[in-house]
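Reminder: ligand-aware prediction takes two inputs, not one.
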Amino acid sequence: MTTLPTLPMLQPRRGKPPRHFTDLDPAERADAVKQLGQPAFRAKQLATHYYDHLTVDAGDMTDLPAAARESLVGELFPPLLTKVTQLTADDGATVKTLWNLIDHAKVESVLMKYPDRATLCVTSQAGCGMACPFCATGQMGLTRNLSAGEIIEQVRLAARQARDGELGGDPVRLSNVVFMGMGEPLANYAAVITAVRALTSPPPEGFGLSARHVTVSTVGLVTGIDRLASEGIPVTLALSLHAPDDELRDELVPINARWKVDEALDAARRYFDATGRRVSIEYALIRDMNDHAHRAELLAKKLNARGDGWVHVNPIPLNPTPGSKWTASDPKVEQEFVRILRMHGIPTTIRDTRGSDIDGACGQLAIKER
Ligand code: SAH
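Here is what comes back for the chain with S-adenosyl-L-homocysteine:
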């Protein structure tokens, strides 16, 4: 009897991405370096190359012995992301990149230059399990969690691109990272918190971003919010509320079946108490769906009931997604929604929607070839 050989090229490669330097804590890095026959202090040199010089090219690492460079890099910096395509908008100030992962899962990240900052929107999961009906990624279902290394590599590659003047001309320093790409970050907690540490630790242990310039956006996983509050890293929390009442939120954000509006808002308030960081409430304005004056009133009431100065609201005009019947609110209705919130003392800023013409705006990230 013969057994057919399996053809690896035809199989999607399953399982975990390979171990990467950025997945490891300092003690594990020192161990890994020692196992490769090098003194532990090489781990710090490698960290400097990675987080400070933004390189994984052995040729750049001239402070390492030539004979050891290739094996250190080969073992500790396996390629995790391969660029598939890149689309630009806004005269080069917005760049969306499609990445291929080791198992051929595809993810996207979006880099945006503003006069005062450069922001990267990162992906934390391939697909998403939260199934919000107005979000393109939500329609894909969840393929898998990204590893910390896969998230951190999105940041290194974007920081390099910005530094090298590939974001509309002059060199730019990546200053902000938002977990608003594909996926629910708090459903991939371990990898996301490792990435948050790498973002906010000073070089050479991290990229040295200010915690306030890192935003973790969530559908409202209450246990995850409380855990994040206890980490001692005051990143900005964004809560995707989209409706102030359970009846409508049950439909727009299905996890509301598990944690109700009031529970999510209580967790957001606890986050403010623990970190001192003002929480953002995200509210995609969907025409005739959630944009009514009475909902603006109810939202203001629920936020004010939990105190002053702890929150602000970011309405986002809905970015249409393929096949959806929903569209953005009428600008007049949007203005009225904002006016009501402000009248009740709630700081409110409409979020700009960069990159909608390249399907790179909030909620539009989905892989076309699927
Ligand atoms: N899962 C996380 C982060 C991903 S999306 C979360 O839900 O917060 C980042 C933001 O974009 C969220 O506030 C999300 O609700 C919003 N969003 C999703 N689809 C959108 C769309 N079609 N138009 C505008 N915003 C959208």
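Residues 1-13 have pLDDT under 50 and may be disordered. The domain at 82-369 is CATH 3.20.20.70 (TIM Barrel). We will return to this case in the review session.
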